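Structure ticket #2291
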Amino acid sequence: MKHQSSLIDYIEQSIIHNWDLNALTDYKGATLQYKDVARKIAKFHIVLENAGIQKGDKIAVCGRNSANWAVTFLGAVTYGAVIVPILHEFKADNIHHIVNHSEAKLLFVGDQVWENLDESAMPLLLGIANINDFSLLLSRCDTLSHASEHRNEIYGKRYPKSFRRENIKYHKSEPDELVIINYTSGTTGYSKGVMLPARSIWSNIDYSFEKRPISPGDTIVSMLPLGHVFGMVVDLLYGFSAGAHLYFLTRMPSPKIIAQSFSEIKPKIISCVPLIVEKIIKKDVLPRVDNRIGKLLLRVPFINDKIKSSARKTAMEIFGNNFEDIIIGGAPFNAEIETFLRKIGFPYNIIYGMTECGPVICSSRWNELKKGSCGKAASRMEVKVDSEDPENKAGELLCRGVNTMLGYYKNPEATEQVIDADGWLHTGDMATIDANDNITIRGRCKNLLLNSSGQNIYPEEIESKLNNMPFVAESLIVMQNEKLVALIYPDFDDAFANGLKQADIEIRMEENRKALNLELPKYSQIAKVKIHFEEFEKTAKKSIKRFMYQDVKE
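Resolution: structure written out below.
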């Protein structure tokens, strides 16, 4: 598509130019063409208008990914309302808080979310609607009830010859106009409302066109939660703006679901968090390539051409065998998995960003990407590392530019803590930057561990190695009594399938500790292993909520 000068222009022009193409499909369900989306948006606007919703009013949406979730989002922003996406994984009290804090006038929910909500805890709402069919679940406004019941009748009178391309005329937002309030699901347990202006979303869409052009009719699978800005922008808004056909899985993207759906859909571009790729490589690729050594292939320095070819073929087939590349972001990528993908020639890209930048800060395509880095600064963004020697000594990564947020909603104190007087946003990540401007993230500032001799230890780097050792599913490195302790959630299924009992698993974890320590500097060696019997709690981006596991008991 031709470059557009605003977010709304991208949406508007895509509908006009792709009128008869398929737009949104719920996997194994109904499909909406771009003209169907336009007509649903028109009816959506009729309800908002008759209910007295003003430009700038807040509309919240909370539910699993679906075509109607996308319609709700597009309908709100093209009307001039501020959309408040809420992750459906949030607990009811958190959803109540976000709806109240954002001062939302309407809430659109999925069935599973609605079952757990208490409408009396959200007194500011005029109404609550079901995403599945836009029917009202609660109305505190007669005009809202009337508009909802008579939307088709009003629509028919307003557009007697049906809704056509020439009827499209959406609200034109100013660059700094607030469009989205996205409440973070960070690993600190504290949720803040990130205010994203039109310029930030437009810039991220524009960057996607620069880096990974797709054509009208190409397919995209939406796996990332649309309630998070990564999936919302990189999948939905970029895909829709490009005239792509978006499929919503409407369920958890397990390796089995991915293999089944991707073979049918054959997506052109795939976006996901690292955990999905890591699981598929470990569980579905390596065992098929060589069942004798499995995950040990990740640690073999040289792999013969036959194994490389077989691994690449298997991995490509699992993801549909039609994609340009896989966009990986939202959390750190396992170093051994990345090395393996590079060895077999598997096309992947790394995106590094944060909600506060809507989301992209830096990224590079696989053929330009320096191993272990997250690429270079995105267009219209500046980055720097706050260090006296940024190439060799990690410091906090700072950024500023068109992508950056307006601030945190109704929280100027928190805004001042992350955006300084010169407009630099403090990411909270430790990084280095080389002479060619490649940025490498070393870990979170708040996760940095300091030993008794003053040596900096980045737990993420140790965890990345530990996670690829036999029978380890995931791990956390914490400091206790000046010593490093590894909390390990074993891959029990794999262990039991190989005949191990509980006592054997503990022995294997201790063997892993000793083997890993041979690779680590003395100051970052693990003193003790503690078995964790349940999967670690995670955010929507699949980052472990580290704050929950800092107090390790003997």
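Closing remark: Residues 24 and 549 are 40 Å apart (CA to CA).
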